[in-house]
Specification:
single chain, about 375 residues, 2 domains, 14 helices
Length: about 375
């Protein structure tokens, strides 16, 4: 199989520039020929004018590559949002008469807008996208369900992002962290437990709800909350922590390097991501799982597909700090549950091993090609 994969440029922040090289190498190991070309922003600081100019140059370059007839499949790694649809629609129009199979891979987005009344312009743009491509890959069955109900003629499939388990996480963590090792002389039982959040600081990630919940947990026991990431909700998190009287126990670490994040995972006892953001399956969940951490999250999209209640995670409803506090307290009170969930997560994360993901990915692309009548 000869594949041209279009993905964000390496200088752009976010998980996609991390996932793509891992997936590409795994596909090559499976015998595929895979070339990559940047598509989208060249840099986080690009101006509108430079984005338009670079987009036109990139589209012309991609079209020339495709018209040479070298590739069987073109995969566009993107998201299901207005901004990305505005750039992807012209690209698909430019490529539609070329020979390859055209596949979109959505890394999150607003597929929920396809359900129910309203959002007519979004639905119209989505329909145009679906008509121009041969198949769409998504990261959760929830998203696929919305798309299939909206456009029954389309081919929609669930795929996973690959994840390489770091030995620095896998070997450096004892399930449930030091707080869980009640019998260890080197780690006394009175160690203050640490709760960890990693992600972009926006309200939809549930970080403000987590501060509210943490105040309730902190009222019942000594503990600390570490928030890693940056974003527009940073000021609100600081303000809310102060108003609730827990500012001294909340650490905002900002943007961190990979090594610094690994150390945070190793030092933590519970990972919490009460998200209701339009994402598929967050990379931070797999990072926490590989570190042997129990997870508290919402039954949202990819989490509902991959995580089992009380085995990998405790699920909480979004925007419910009281329920979130109860789940965190339950894990901090139950060392056996933390240990059991931590062990289960180090096993479950192997589901995302690159070669495992690549084999399923190839089968999915072959299925789309067959349905399109090209095989």
């Amino acid at each position: 199989m000869r594949v041209l994969m279009l993905s964000p440029h390496p200088k752009v922040t976010g998980p996609l520039p991390k996932h793509t090289p891992v997936l590409v190498q795994a596909l090559r190991d499976e015998g595929c020929t895979v070339d990559t070309v940047g598509w989208g922003r060249h840099d986080d600081e690009d101006s509108v004018a430079s984005r338009i100019a670079s987009r036109l140059r990139d589209m012309s370059r991609i079209r020339r590559l495709v018209l040479r007839g070298k590739y069987e499949i073109v995969v566009v790694k993107t998201s299901h949002e207005w901004v990305s649809m505005g750039r992807d629609l012209p690209l698909l129009v430019a490529l539609r008469r070329a020979p390859p199979i055209l596949v979109l891979q959505f890394h999150g987005g607003r597929s929920d807008k396809l359900a129910g009344p309203g959002s007519l312009m979004f639905k119209g743009a989505s329909r145009a996208l679906f008509e121009l491509c041969d198949g769409v890959l998504m990261l959760s069955s929830e998203e696929v369900g919305y798309a299939e109900a909206f456009y029954p003629r389309g081919t929609f499939r669930v795929v996973d992002n690959p994840y390489v388990v770091s030995s620095k996480l896998a070997n450096g963590h004892s399930y449930g962290a030091a707080y869980g090792r009640r019998q260890s002389a080197s780690c006394p039982s009175d160690r203050v437990p640490s709760i960890l959040f990693v992600g972009r600081l926006i309200e939809e990630k549930g970080v403000v709800d987590l501060v509210e919940a943490f105040a309730r947990v902190r009222g019942a026991r000594p503990c600390r909350l570490v928030v890693a990431g940056r974003g527009p909700a940073d000021a609100e998190v600081r303000q809310r922590s102060g108003l609730l009287g827990v500012a001294d126990d909340v650490t905002l670490s900002g943007q961190m390097s990979t090594q610094e994040l690994y150390e945070l995972y190793r030092q933590s006892d519970v990972f919490v991501l009460p998200t209701y953001w339009a994402e598929g399956f967050p990379t931070v969940i797999t990072e926490a799982m590989s570190a042997g951490l129990p997870v508290v999250t919402t039954r949202h999209r990819g989490m509902a597909d991959h995580l089992t209640e009380e085995e990998n995670a405790l699920f909480v409803p979004p925007r419910k700090p009281v329920d979130l506090a109860m789940a965190i307290n339950r894990l901090l009170d139950d060392g056996a549950l933390r240990t059991r969930m931590g062990k289960a997560n180090t096993v479950k994360v192997q589901h995302f091993a690159p070669q495992v993901v690549a084999r399923r990915y190839v089968q999915t692309l072959e299925d789309i090609a067959t349905r399109a009548g090209r095989r």
